[in-house]
Amino acid sequence: MIRFLLRRIGVVIPTFLSITLLAFSLIHLIPGDPILVMMGERHIDPEFYKLAMQKLGLDQPLYLQYWHYLVHALHGDLGLSVRSQVPVMQEFLTLFPATVELSICAMIFATVVGLGAGIIAAVKRGTVADHGVMGVALAGYSMPIFWWGLILIMVFSVQLGITPVSGRIDLLYDVTPVTGLMLIDTLLAHDMDAFRSALSHLILPSIVLGTIPMAVIARMTRSSMLEVLREDYIRTARAKGLSMTRIVLVHALRNALMPVITVIGLQVGTLLAGAVLTETIFSWPGVGSWLINAIGARDYPVVQGGILLIATLIIFVNLLVDVLYGVINPRIRHAR
Amino acid sequence: MKQMKAGIVLASVLALATGASLAAGKTLIYCSEGSPAGFDPARYTTGTDFDASAETIYNRLVEFVPGSTQIRPGLADKWDVSADGRTYTFYLHKGVKFHTTPYFKPTRDFNADDVIFTFARLTDKNLPFNKATNATYPYASDMGMDSNIAKVEKIDPYTVKISLNKVDAAFLQNIAMSFASVMSAEYADQLMKTGKADQINTQPIGTGPFIFQAYQKDSVIRYNGNTEYWRKGDVRLDKLIFAITTDPSVRYQKLQKGECQIMSYPRPADLKAMQANPALKVPSQAGFNLGYVSYNVTHKPLDKVEVRQALDMAINKKAIIDAVYQGAGQLATNPMPPTQWSYNKTLKDAPLDVNKAKALLAKAGLPNGFEITLWAMPVQRPYNPNAKLMAEMIQNDWAKIGVKAKIVTYEWGEYIKRARAGEDDAMLIGWNGDNGDPDNWLGTLLGCEAVDGNNYGKWCQKDFNDLIVKARSLPNQAERTKLYEQAQVIFKRDVPYTPVAHSTVYQPMRKEVDGFKISPFALNAFYGVGLK
């Protein structure tokens, strides 16, 4: 097991280094710099420009800038945001809980609905229900997130008035952040009205962010279930006279879940990518919208640090999934 | 069991330490367009930053009358200007309190020391406070404040004298701008002593109508109404909340649903629906801005005045206003908006005339037309909501007189950099007025000293420049007006650029909002705003 772990970690280090290099090069390849973008059509005195670039350390050759960034990053220092002069790590930690909360809720939605839809489609294979559910899943998979979000807001928030339009909570509630997770913070404050408000604000963004993973999970569940339902032991269970519900939920689902869990693990990346758009539409103060704004402002430290932190997180989740596989299935652990 | 008990105790402690409270009284929620980079207005250049700091938390010695380009007394009750126009003496308002917050408790009222600190920060690179914050002040530098302020002296605790190196007729307007917001010297001292000078950008202290309470990036900014505000009647709200909502469609939907009472920057396409909504009102004001096509006079054949005149008269401005501004624009004739004092009302546009334009080209030796590049901005600006479409329309107009325009675009920072280097032939650009002074249009955009800056056309015309340089040094507005009117005649004769449109500013809000004034400078201030 230790050898397996070391082997995995050995792969992580070059991946990590490549990400730092990629994040650094990509943002520096985009023309423009933070000062030019900030000044727009205003005049910049050349002396002032030189001084400002010097203060930001942007007057040094690129390889030196990269080296400083790498050395500092390895010490856990991701630098200061060019715009706000606040440490990148501090900004990330303030915003990340919002993304986590949204991602968890989106995943719950995707898993519950995706599994349910996949099971129904498999059990009712070839019927209208199957085609209907799979059609919806396909549509969900190809839905442009921006459009989908605006449509849901228009229907459920503006026309029907059921859900709030955007944000994390009704702003008339002034909740002191403790964990950064609004649902927990409102509970800690013993304010059930605020909790309900936070919950209602999560509904639409969770649906929007969870739609693509939901579609993937539904399709995977269906095909996995269909395979399992053809197995001999299912036929035996039927022959024993067990109810269909028991056969599906107890005997088939448990075995069909393995590949589905893999897919759920892989969706973490999709969720974080989708969060960029979802957060923009729903004014959700998470790391997605933070990164987008930073790219626009050429806030190099934020872009580099943000990408690095998110990539590290994805690497860590993948490592965790690998290790879990190893625990569940020893054959993977011993494979070279 | 022990663990459970510990859990209960921890939860109770946390519950005591934290809290959620429901805002009571008159609370106004404003759907703003983005997060401010910080709360020190001198460090930034955009309205988003200024709305969150200068317009709420701070005051200036001299301020703009809400909704106008005229100035009024701010923290200075009155001022004298010396005969040579280079020395200003300000008499400060007494009894003005700086905000009391959990992080700062002032021990004294506002006085001359605060004014001295404010201007020292903008002008003295070696000020220990500046060294400690590592901040730069681009707007002050852009307006020439860092180089022109020679000395700031304290005459007595409530009198300050500012001396300039050279006469600047727009000086009072300049110090009414957001970057010149007055800071507390006492707070700065406290920050320096605790080694947290940069906190001035995250925990601001001012004298303004609203006291900073909390900020959550990309989410919300909270302010409390300043009950001790020195200008009575300006604070009619108990709480002011900025709901940061970047997407304009979502801002509109929040406004419709009553999740906010005022919103910034509507999409032109939503305006009709907004105006038809009985719960909303959409006041508007002619924008204090100008979108234009600049001609690079250092490139042939644009150096010939006939060529520029031909291009100018071939542009169908009316069609552009309908399509690009969707009607929310005003046809531009002069190099400044009509609301700017000294606007020359006698000037007229050359009528749209393809044949005459062709004749002018023939006269310039180009009967078969020519090819040029036409640059289009990659971003939406307040003075031009869709530069790409505008470029395509102009390309089409010019094709009718035989001029083939190739549309070029670059990333925004690069666009400006290359344009300043003179790489363009013709380009779309524009300007938002900074301070209500005519020099901010004629000097900043067309003066000879701006040829490496905002004078993108590199047009340096001696008779024009002499007039604006002279006007800048005169204290008398009537005399200045005469010179600026003459300068506009020269502009119209030489056509260094074609003014296209002034975009109209719309400010959608719910009907219950009362007292909001649209700023000509595209700022959002809540002085005197209340809820019915």
UniProtKB/TrEMBL annotation, chain A:
A Pfam family annotated for this UniProt entry: BPD_transp_1_N
Endpoints of the signal sequence: none
Keyword Heme on entry: no
GO cellular component: plasma membrane
Domain ABC transmembrane type-1: from-to ranges: 96-325
GO molecular function: dipeptide transmembrane transporter activity
Keyword terms, alphabetized: Cell membrane, Membrane, Transmembrane, Transmembrane helix, Transport
Membrane-spanning parts: 9-30, 100-123, 135-162, 198-218, 256-282, 302-328
Family annotation (PROSITE patterns): ABC_TM1
UniProt xrefs under InterPro entries: BPD_transp_1_N, MetI-like, MetI-like_sf
Chief location: membrane
Subcellular location: Cell membrane
Membrane-topology annotation of the record: Multi-pass membrane protein
Record-stated family: Belongs to the binding-protein-dependent transport system permease family.
PANTHER family: DIPEPTIDE TRANSPORT SYSTEM PERMEASE PROTEIN DPPB-RELATED
Record's protein name: Dipeptide transport system permease protein
From TrEMBL, chain B:
Cellular-component GO terms for this entry: ATP-binding cassette (ABC) transporter complex; outer membrane-bounded periplasmic space
Biological-process GO terms, alphabetical: dipeptide transport
Keyword terms: Signal
Signal sequence coordinates: 1-23
A Pfam short name: SBP_bac_5
Domain Solute-binding protein family: 71-449
Protein origin, superkingdom: Bacteria
GO molecular function, one term: peptide transmembrane transporter activity
PANTHER family in alphabetical order: D,D-DIPEPTIDE-BINDING PERIPLASMIC PROTEIN DDPA-RELATED, PERIPLASMIC BINDING COMPONENT OF ABC TRANSPORTER
Entry's family note: Belongs to the bacterial solute-binding protein 5 family.
Protein name as catalogued: Dipeptide transport system substrate-binding protein
Species for this entry: Silvimonas terrae
